[in-house]
Amino acid sequence: MLIRALTLDLDDTLWPVWPTIIRAEETLHAWLAEHAPRTAQRYPIAAMRQLRDRIANERPEIAHDFTEQRRLTLLHALRDSGEDATLVEPAYEVFIAARNVVDLYPEAGAALEQLAARYPIGALTNGNADLVRIGIDRHFTFHIGAREHGVPKPHVSIFQAACQRLALAPEQVLHVGDDPELDVIGAQGAGMRTAWINREGARWQWSPREPDYTVRSLDELVQQLGCETPATQGSP
After folding, report:
1. Residue 229: pLDDT band with limits 50, 70, 90
2. Distance separating the N- and C-terminal Cα atoms of the chain
């Protein structure tokens, strides 16, 4: 059946996520050093990560909600250090603003333009990236995050919700993402077609059913879907 729309993962599909997270954590730590110095001293970056992991393990009901995990981590760290708990929100704002300063993969901007010219695109993510802050919201018709939906990928329901938003049958929607289990296997479970962004050139080994498309980059997917604009077709 003809592909009529796309859903697109964000972190590690459009930009590398860990450099972004590391930079955001460093920015937050510098802010805490100025505004909550005892917290910064008691919880350097590594300790803050360990605290966040502990809270995530202790609160499985918010496993899908990275925003709430961060806020609770900050609340615990501030209280444990004897500092003002009302600093949670400004501290979180410092973190999330830095978390949404991303470095797109070199081909991602142009590829998004070309894909969005052909298909409606929905963002489908477990993370807390903000399309408006990043400046790419114009390419997307909607955004579904695990926090808002209530469960994360690879749960079938989040993919089904995206298809419902598009008013299309699952087999008419291509999900594009980097993670074999969260993106490919999850979307396959919902009956969607899949494109695996395999930047490292790994061999598929996660299930008997391979992705419909396996590409090294988004511009390769653009080519395979025939979304190239006349200016890019045939260019060296």
Report:
1. low
2. 32
- Encode 33-66: b = buried (16+ Cβ within 10 Å), e = exposed: eeebeebbebbeeeebeebbeebbeeeeebebbb
Distance CA 22, CA 71 (A): 17
What's the CATH number for 19-99?
1.20.120.1600
> Mapping DSSP to helix (H, G, I), strand (E, B) and coil, where does residue 79 land?
helix
> What's the one-letter identity of residue 59?
R
Per-domain residue ranges for the chain?
Answer: 5-16+106-225, 19-99
Hey, what are 156's tokens? 């079938």
Instruction: Say which residue the tokens 């142009």 belong to.
Output: 110
- Other Cβ atoms within 10 Å of 210 Cβ, number: 14
Q: Using CA atoms, how far apart are residues 56 and 60, in angstroms rounded to an integer? A: 6
What is the CATH code for 5-16+106-225? 3.40.50.1000
Q: In Å, how far are 10, 152, 159 from 63, measured between CA atoms?
A: 18, 8, 18
Residue listed under structure tokens 């490919």: 184
Token pair of 35, please?
């505004």
Average pLDDT, the chain: 95
pLDDT digits (tens, 9 = 90+) for 12-32: 999 999 999 999 999 999 999
Quick check: 236 pLDDT over 60? no
Task: Indicate if the alpha-carbon torsion angle 78, 43, 72, 124 is positive or negative.
Answer: positive
What H or E segment, with its residue span, contains residue 156?
Answer: helix 156-166
pLDDT in tens, 194-218: 999 999 999 999 999 999 999 999 9
